[in-house]
Amino acid sequence: METKELGKQLIESLENMTQDLKANKSDVAAMDLYMVNTVRVLTISCVEFQELIDRYPDSPNENQCRLIVEKLQHAIVLFGGKPYPKPNLILRNLRRISISAKKLVTPSKRTMNRPRNTNRREVTPMEKKKSLHFAQLVIRKSLQDTDSADENTEDIDPLFNPVVYGNQQMFVVEDHTDSLPIAQLNIIDDVYNELFFFNSHINYLGFENDECKCIVSVLNNPDIACEEATFCMDLGTSYKTLICNKHGHNLTSINNIALSDIHQRTIGACFEEFFNRQATNDYTYYLVKHKLLPGDIRNIEKTHRQSIKKMKIAILYAKNGQTMQEIFENQPPQDSLYWKFLNELGEVIDLNGWSKYKGDFGEVDQQSYYTIWKGIEIMFHVGPMLTVEQHRRLLGNDIAFIIFNEEDTLCEFDPSPLDELGTVPQLFSIVQTYRKLYRVGFFNRSNIKPFGPPPPPSDYCFDIGNVKDFLLTKVHNGLMMARKCPPMNRLFTEPRAQCIKEIGEKYPQETLKQMHKREITEFKERKEQMEGMGVREELNMKIMEVSNLPSSNSAYVQVRLLDQKKKTSKSSTGKWKSKLVFDLLGTDKTQNELELTVYMYDRFGSDSSVGHCVIGLQDAIIISQENRGVWYDLFCIDSVQSVDAVRCKVMFEYGHFIE
């Protein structure tokens, strides 16, 4: 009850403040008195709410009260100095506090039923007095500013000015948004290693003018109703497909219906014909089945990864109106917020004997700043800590810059002198101090495409704890974008293109007959080496059922593994109880596959194939541990596409024996 009464009093006070502001906003003298009274009332409310939190630390309304205290403290800091904020900004802050207070008075059902936070740490005595001491200092400062203020001071709020001067020819200055954006990290996963490398899949090389330009990988086992299908309508089953080229990789899907007019005996040959039909830029695709190829594809993403695991960032100290040479020579005092800002970004390390990421420093005997942020190693090139030679060698080759502008006057920063750094630096962030808080702005070279997060509102100020994540997220996403834009893109695309070209030279084109012959030769060589070791491996494959057969004729299933070919008896019901036994000694579990085909028996003609699928040996061995039947969707080879996909239920038993 005490909490609601306090919330109602605050709401009433805020309504009175709003009415008084509308009545006195055009009178400078009246505004001075209004601001002093407003700060005093807000301070009293802040102290009362803090005392309420201390008195009832486990109250269900504790979190909401803390939120109100934070907003009150923010408003006290904003209102307590000169020049005063514009009336619109004052009203906005009063409205924010009022909304939080109304939630306290009439909480929603979700808030009322929320469990208490029993893990919150205890408030220290120093923190209990924080609001009161802080408020007293703000009131005293506000009264002093009021007494010494000039009566002709214009009612201009510098917080509405942009952080960066926007009229630029060399740079593109990003506009401030109306609300605080979400700082979301742009992370690209190694899709091939996660989805393809350890699963049964087929690889194709795409050539243009006898030079390999791309690699296409297709999972053997289709998905149901995949949302990423782009080659056709998203109906039925679809095959996950990964296209790897010099620009990176693209995950998509190929729907089974798109393959209905292609008549090949195997999935591999069918996709090869499909890619050549859909090929652009005169690309020619061919199937490659080689045990070393998956490792080479995975190596592309390891050596030329799209994700960023290491960053080097230049941090300079600059004042308005300085030349580039003066910025290089700046030595901020020890009590400068610049050093406090750096200590928040990272920690001081000794580069002598440093074994982690060095950020191009090499073997030197000096100190720098370093951190690991969200799994990314970051080395900071701190301008005041570098030599003249390092200014040229390190800063001249840094792509990302953070400029610390310690100016409480809130003048727009003119980035023109930074053009002298050359064409390599592409991304720039400005951090400007304001009453021990931080405003940020961003500008880039004109060749860089837009990337997030955008700058927050110009009147939004970060505290020291929040500015780090927002800044480093912006820098990380900017470096990701710089890789795709000239001139930095060549540092990423050319090495990848060369690696893909070498793979094309390593694996020449083979016919299906040549591939099968090579696989059997390698299999026999491995089997001869293992026969004298007294080891025996078997895989029992039980064909349980085939559903959705297109006719009532008898059907049978044929399975091939290298030079071993087995088939079931004929069945008119589509169900079997017999087992097919395969000798796995000498097989390559990661590369060899079981090729399953369902045939409709024709007494007077040739048997027709109605479905085909490929099951990796490694997948089959893993499934055998589950001791259950598994359904597989079959790729329809017949010219007539059935409405319901033909499916086959299979059960595996794996045995490894030492004789």
Strand arrangement in the largest pleated sheet: 1-14-13-12-8-11-10-9
End-to-end CA span: 81 Å
Low-pLDDT ranges: 108-157, 224-235, 639-643
Structural class: alpha+beta
Quote the beta fraction: 15-25%
pLDDT averaged residue by residue:
80
Quick description:
The protein is built from 17 helices and 22 strands. The chain has 659 residues and is an alpha+beta fold. Strand 2 and strand 3 form a beta hairpin.
Provide an overview of this structure.
It is a single chain. This protein is of the alpha+beta class. It has helices at 2-24, 28-55, 62-79, 87-105, 109-112, 125-128, 130-148, 191-196, 267-278, 293-303, 324-329, 337-345, 388-393, 467-482, 490-506, 512-531, 617-624; strands spanning 171-173, 201-208, 211-219, 223-224, 237-245, 248-255, 284-288, 310-318, 347-350, 367-373, 376-382, 400-405, 427-434, 437-445, 535-547, 555-561, 564-567, 579-583, 593-600, 608-616, 630-633, 647-658. Strands 1-14-13-12-8-11-10-9 form an eight-stranded mixed beta sheet. Strands 2, 3, 4, 5, 6 and 7 form a six-stranded antiparallel beta sheet that branches. Strand 19 (593-600) and strand 20 form a beta hairpin. Helix 2 (28-55) packs antiparallel against helix 3 (62-79).
